[in-house]
Amino acid sequence: MLTELRIRNFAIIEQVTLPLSSGFNVLSGETGAGKSIIVGALGLLLGERASADLIRSGADKATVEGVFDISKLKDISKLADDRGIEVEEETLVLKREIATSGRGRAWINGTTVTASVLAEIGRQLVNLHGQHDAQTLLDSESQRRILDAFGGADRQAELVRSAHGEMSDVRREIATLTSRRADAEKRADYLRHVAKEIEDARLSSGEDTKLEDEARVLENADELRTLASTLNELLSGEEASVLSQLGAAQRPLSSIERIDPSAVRMQELFDTGFYALQELARAVDDYAGSVELDPARLEEVRRRRDRVFGLLKKYGPTLEDVIAAGTTARAELDLIDTAQFDLANLTAREADARRRLSREAEKLSEMRLSAAKKLAKAVDALLPPLGMPDGRFSVTLTARDEPTAEGAEDVEFRVALNVGHEDRPLARVASGGELSRVMLALKTILARVDHVPTLIFDEVDAGIGGRVGLQVGDTLRRVAKEHQVFAISHLPQIAARAHHHIVVAKGAKGGVTTADITVLEGTSRVNEIARMLGGDPESKVSRAHAKELLESAGAPG
Question: Which of left, alpha, beta for 63 (phi over 0: left; psi -120 to 50: alpha)?
């Protein structure tokens, strides 16, 4: 449960620490005192969008922290551990910060987390219900989720989504393969030409480069032989060759070494150079002998090169692209022959997936039908205590033409709130106050199957008063037996039913408006209930009425 909420520099709040207890907590205060700001701070803590506009005037950042006791929530401990968050002393501290730059940060137990992780864990800890949330009752998807949650059908609904996803995947494969086969059939003649032309060429990787090199040698064979012969004559010819002149240099070099042994390095360098030139002379001689004038081979290379060049122009720019084009064309042609077999397999898979979807959807429909009857009965029992004595609630299941990811039926909540009126969709008959009370009835019922420990209600008393307010307060008090409840209310009838009462008041510090909170007990609580009744807190009549309200709820007064 939420044990403490700390807010700093948020909207008009400079700094408050809100202590919360188990049971039913209520927050009251004058209009504009900051009640809705506290709800906004809670929403921020639970991952709602942050804005620099929320920072108090003159401050550089705003922070919201929530301290949660998770001693009874082992699943939350595991979820936190899976996210790399250490849990100590069975406590989680969620923190959100907004800077004037617009940059936001979030932490859980000191570990930096993303806003999405903060929201993921926050949703397991707190269910925040405001006026906007009542409107979700009008959305068919939300109604379906509520029914499935009540009927314990969430797992079955997931099996339906999985089966539908599998069927959709197979159908996409069938559509893709059918389209590819149709396209291949239209282009079959062209594909056969491409595949045959490239396959007949028997290309090999890098062949174009090798052909260019060989053609260049063959085209210049005569010049290459002349150059090689000239170089060979210079190196080892009979007259004034390089090697013969180097041989003459051997004698003075030997004489130098004989006189100065330290000159041995020059002899080593000479020997290395001499032997290298001898090897070069042999290589040049061999090369000159290997170069042949071969017009027939040259013509053959030229024809092959032209053929490869033509393929490069059509399917290139590289030889690898040409080879790939041939492979792709052949694969598309093969598809025409193999698609029928593959489509038969896919069709069989699609039929299996469709049967599985139908089977799982049928089970889900049975669970929803049973849950619809039980939910209607449970809500009907709560409507009279919430000020709607003639109210009737029902859930209509309308079959779809075929099952979808959401199941085989549409779910619609319907109500008839007056005698003699037929039931109609909730959106068409409920006022804001009635809608809030229907939502409260649903929350009360779902609380029995909901594992979220803290329920927060903002403006649940919209559009009601008098005895209905007492009934709503009693309902919240009953819910608080199984959950921690925190309600923001302006009705004394609801506030008097709370186990713990906190008041928020607006003031000023340093010329800047701020909001502060006070935990009420005894006389101070009587005074606040008297104020909420619209009378003078010092009036004996107002105070007597306030005490009566508190005593009727069993609260100290």
Answer: beta
